[in-house]
Amino acid sequence: MTAIHSMDAMASMNSKTGMDAILQAQLDQRHEQFLYRQRLNVASGCGTVLQVEGRSLLNFCSNDYLGLAGHPDIAVALKAGVDTYGTGSGASHLISGHSVAHQQLEEQLAEFTGRPRAILFSTGYMANMGVINALVGRHDLVLQDQLNHASLLDGGRLSRADFKRYKHNDMASLQAQLEQADASRTLIVTDGVFSMDGDLAPLPEISALAAQHNGWLMVDDAHGLGVLGATGAGIVEQQGLSAQQVPILMGTLGKSFGTFGAFVAGSEALIETLIQFARSYIYTTALPPSIACASSAALKIVRREQWRREHLQSLIGRFRRGAQQIGLELMDSQTPIQPICINDDRRVMEINQRLRDKGFMVGAIRPPSVPAGTGRLRVTLSASHTEQQIDQLLDALQSCL
Ligand SMILES: *Cc1c(COP(=O)(O)O)cnc(C)c1O
Fold first, then answer.
1. First to last CA, the chain
2. According to the model, what pLDDT value does residue 1 have?
3. Measured in angstroms, how far is the CA atom of residue 254 from the centroid of ligand 1?
4. If you average pLDDT over residues 144-164, what whole number do you get?
5. For 226-243, what is each residue's pLDDT tens digit?
6. Are 198 and 337 in contact (CB under 8 A)?
7. Which atom of ligand 1 is nearest to the CA of 194?
8. Does the CB atom of residue 187 touch ligand 1 within 6 A?
9. How far is residue 174 from each of residues 2, 54, 140, 165, 186, measured CA to CA in Å?
10. Angle value at C-alpha 169, between 67 and 372, nearest 5 degrees
11. Which domains does the chain have, with CATH numbers?
């Protein structure tokens, strides 16, 4: 009986209509289009140099903008957290997983961002899914910048609200959509710093439009937090936007904080609403408390060590000047995200491989992460880089392009 069963199973797997055959055809197609993605096995921690398959590569593709992922004080805080709390939280926040360490970090993040309260999520992806789904449903409207991060777009799609995208940073396009709206709630959602282009959302204009049309504004500042603003509180600090102007602020801790997790900051009513209704908050295990301890330690360094932001800004300037001199086509970005336009997925892969052979790692960004025909190399800079390393990258780019 079992033997016959498994032979049937084999036959169906091998036929042209079996699951694996169908999946393989799709994978082959992705290869042919130069869109296939592969993982590397990195043998070292996140730093300026990565050990990959026996080689040392200079890392220009992490989101560790302030160079904190390997900071010893944060590691000490994490270890002390394990000593106090063990390895796992053991439950969701609403059951018994919400520790004093989580609570303290939430209070510190609220104070840092100048908002009444904050709530931790296990990842930024989950925060975005959770917020959008907790705030809007049927009969509501979600308006998003077309270049928003995938987690925001997925959150919009999953909500039962009417979901529309406006042209990137185009206020006329947003205004036109707001004027047509007749939903009971309208949620406007934008990245603060756009993750694949590195440019900034015009938040004063967006928040003014939101106010005029009674829309609720959510900003995802995953890439601005830690990097922008005098104390690293992100784009809202840099642009001087109050909690009224940006009532829903989301940030992540896995990028410039060098740890893991995410948070949403806002009013008392907003945060209580998320505790009650954000499904990706309620139905998941709380982050290990030790991670919250590490993030609290990271926050202190983010606030205190202004030199990290200053050094990063000077590296950004150096990279852009050097890139202009050798004729690279950059985007309009003053942030550590510095894409180099290639616009051809095959060339993106070829140049990326040549850079790898020379010992440099940059991001090879292709659809669907970016619109078709806009494939690019994505260089990300970190406060842990030296000027010399920037110059080495520029030399390598010049010889590979
Ligand atoms: C990285 C990122 C996220 C997701 O955050 P994770 O904590 O990595 O899940 C969300 N939004 C933006 C804009 C991001 O860049």
1. 61
2. 44
3. 8
4. 97
5. 999 999 999 999 999 999
6. yes
7. 13
8. no
9. 61, 50, 16, 8, 12
10. 80
11. 42-66+306-400 (3.90.1150.10), 72-304 (3.40.640.10)
